[in-house]
Amino acid sequence: MLALPDVTWLDICLAGAGVYLLKQVFTKKNPAPYPPGPPGWPLIGNILDMPHIKPRLAFAEWGNKYGDISHIEVLGQHIIVLNSIKTAMKMLDKKSSLYSDRPVFPMAKLAGWKDVLPLLPYGDHFRWHRKNFHRVIGSRTAMKVHHPLEEIETHRFLKCVHVTPGELMEHVRHTAGAIILRISHGYEVKENHDPFIELADRALDQFSRLTIPGAWMVDIIPSLAKVPEWCPGAGFKRFARECNGTVEEMISAPYQFVKDQMAAGIAPKSLASSLLEGRTLSAEEDHMSKWSTATVYAGGADTVGPSLH
Q: What family does the entry list (predicted)?
């Protein structure tokens, strides 16, 4: 009987590198050239150029050097950086049917994020979510409805800044989350240590780690997703399981809060209540509604704060 050799994590990595090299040799190259960008290295591409701290500064520098559209490659994954609002609007708004598709992150999928709008491929679910967002924030008329609550939260923000000016960014982050949670779920946040704000912060911190290009071998070799959690080197599977718990709590807890408020007849108007009111949803529709509201709640809190900063 033949004895099978022990397979180490190094063997798997070397095999993966070999598969990648063969793919590079035999895969037909894209006939259209990519936009300009910093030169990369064989095999690893621009992984050494990829910024992990304040990436906006590096992206802005590339914009000054290479123009409004620049390109890098990290371990076979091509990344396009847009460095002007005009270019971003032209590509992502006016030509959305061409550029609305999303990158594939097997690690994020393992961690429970496959249904969040930024990672959804262009299709029926993507259009359904976008339609929901347009109802609450997609026009001047829709935004006018939210002006009173924005004014209330702005007054609270100014009061907090007056009392503790040294905690300005904490107040900005808290206010952004407060406004978004009112819009998405009709939820009024607590002044300090609100559980839903802290939950979103934890989930978004994990999401940012999950989607760093080149950070996870499973993004380079998707078949590693089938590796058992107990296998040496499969720590990424344990981290994905931890993230799954956080994601499930983030999308379900505020959504259930709205359902409970509606059952009690005291739910204020919100995206979640408008999706649930007077309707009997199928399991799939309920799942999609939950993700629509969670995307507004998480995505809004993640972008408004940095924008104000």
A: Belongs to the cytochrome P450 family.
